[in-house]
Design goal:
By secondary structure, the chain is an alpha+beta fold. The protein folds into two domains: 32 residues; 81 residues, N-utilization substance G protein NusG, insert domain (mini-chromosome maintenance (MCM) complex, domain 2). It contains two helices and seven strands; from the N terminus they run H-E-E-E-E-E-H-E-E. A four-stranded antiparallel sheet has the order 2-1-7-6. It has a three-stranded antiparallel sheet with strand order 3-4-5. The protein is elongated, with a radius of gyration of 20 Å. The two termini are 39 Å apart.
């Protein structure tokens, strides 16, 4: 395969270093996202409004009203994860996306400028293979 690449040994070495840096960066970013308990970060535009822990089994659900560009968006945090239950947007993609609970999951109501990002470990004790 190395014969298919044009260039000298320096070019190949530089390519190898760049690819290694990308892979290393990916693992570092994933480790930072999944560190700590499961938290839901709620944003309006680029402003972080609040950070809440996701409830575990047996804990009561939490319901919040977030003011956006078009009106109020209702966010529910429960044992299933975070979800938007109502929003004034016309497409309702955010409502239809359901509950999210895994690190890196994002719920976005683009017309209303509301974003929910899940950080930390999964709210459930299972991974994608078990579920």
């Amino acid at each position: 395969m190395l014969q298919l690449l044009k260039g000298g040994k320096t070019d190949r070495l530089l390519l190898l270093v760049a690819l290694s840096a990308i892979v290393f960066s990916w693992f570092v970013i994933q480790a930072q996202i999944s560190a700590g308990p499961a938290m839901a970060e709620i944003y309006h535009g680029q402003i972080l409004l609040a950070t809440y822990p996701l409830p575990q089994a047996g804990e009561p659900e939490q319901r919040f009203q977030v003011d956006g560009e078009l009106g109020e968006t209702v966010v529910v945090l429960d044992k299933q994860g975070a979800r938007i239950t109502s929003s004034p947007c016309s497409t309702q993609h955010c409502v239809l996306s359901g509950a999210h609970r895994h690190a890196g999951d994002i719920i976005a109501c683009v017309p209303n400028h509301i974003l929910i990002s899940i950080r930390g470990k999964s709210a459930s004790g299972y991974d994608a293979i078990v579920e």
